[in-house]
Amino acid sequence: MNLPLVFRLLSAISWLIGLTMVFSLPAAWPQFGGQAEFETRGFYALIVSIVLSFSAGIVLRYFGRGAPETLYRKEAMAVVGLSWVLATVLGAVPFLLSDTVYSAAEGVSVPMGITDALFESQSGFSTTGATVLTDIENEQWVPRCILFWRSSTHFLGGLGIIVLFVAVLGQGSAGKALMRTEMPGPSNEGSHERMQHTAWIFASIYCGLNLLLATILRLEGMTWFEAICHAFGTMATGGFSTRNASLGGFGSNAIEYTVIVFMVLAGTNFTLLYLTLLSKPGKLLRDPEWRTYIGIIVASTAMVMLVGIYLTTDFNQQGSLPQPQEFEVAFRDGLFQVVSTLTTTGFGTADYDLWNNFSRALLMVLMFVGGCAGSTGGGMKVIRHILFVKILRREIEHSFHPSVVRHIRLAGDSITDPDLPRNILVYFGLVALIFTVSWQVLVGLEPDSTWVAAGHPVENKLIDSASAVAATLHNIGPGLGIVGSTQNYAPFSAASKLLFTFLMMLGRLELFAILVLVVPSFWRVR
Known about the structure:
two-stranded antiparallel sheet
């Protein structure tokens, strides 16, 4: 392991995070839409955090002096994995130094501890959107500039710290190794030979869509502060909001439909978006993953709307036909929640815990699907599910026709990579193992009193815990019951929050870049 080179690259990550914090400073001024007074507490917390980030970069740079330029796969995986650990720690500092309050016990405000700050920071960078903050609209509890930093972690995490790093600084031949490890999905080679050029394309499309969405949301009634924060949360498929009721707090149909469109775009492979911009929309329409992705949205919305919402409303019990306005509300709520869950964004406009069990179960199934490969969406990715079904079908046929050799085909082309079936099956098996073990650990860690204190039935503990694990492992954020769309993760113990933090990091980097960090042989010097 070439540790000096790892340290040198991590120093640039530290400086990048510190530089990003600078853009949150203007939110401390009243002119930015904050409270009447200058936010001294949040402003100075950010200043100290910036100094610490740059200082950490200097120290890491010192230990990385004289490092050779060649970056191999092992070092690339170390840089990617450690960069997210480093980002989590540095990103938590503003929450701690600003005494950000996450709850109130017996009328006394409780500032965030180290565990809560690490949870909130990783939730932002991993674009999960889970939160422990109970009242983000109270500027005495959460300074406006800290709230902006919270959304900024989505912006960084959505594109990927390493992708942005390669785009801005470039790393020559190292860029390819870094991009391979960072970009999600089973195919992460990028659309061009030059990885820095690819990173620039992704960064440009990502920033352009953020700017476009923020402008539209501003025209639809949001302040610039709200528009920028929600644009960050949407295009990163993160879900952090500036309202306690998430997007439902705005009560605007136009805003909801706008965000739906951009969530769908955020869950689409950015390479296909780039080709569409080059007047090649046929590539998008013919792509099997994107067509399956849209098909899942259409089918799931229909089922949720008809079975989940209509069957739980008064008009069904009265035996009358739905009115047009009821149909529109059911369609909008169902579509929004399906898209929000599938793309792993996690915004909410309705309390889906009031829907029937069929629709709640369907939403939980969507947590295990995710967006397209090469998108900012989390989850297991649609393409993996397509390939998994094809592999299973081939293996079933092989059981009664063992002499038949049949290649897996995708979009008319044969997949010749002999390792692909094994990689897909290993990934599915590993996800199932991590989910099962984490679920069991969470049930053991959390006493029944957690549910009692939160006002939720103890008998729902098993399904609520399963949804919490799925929502963090697949970077969705809200789950069911105690972590539903109108709830948060504040009731959980410090040990459970650390488990969730680890799961969020695992999910964002698709397991291996984090798991290798705990393997002793990974750190052996050549």
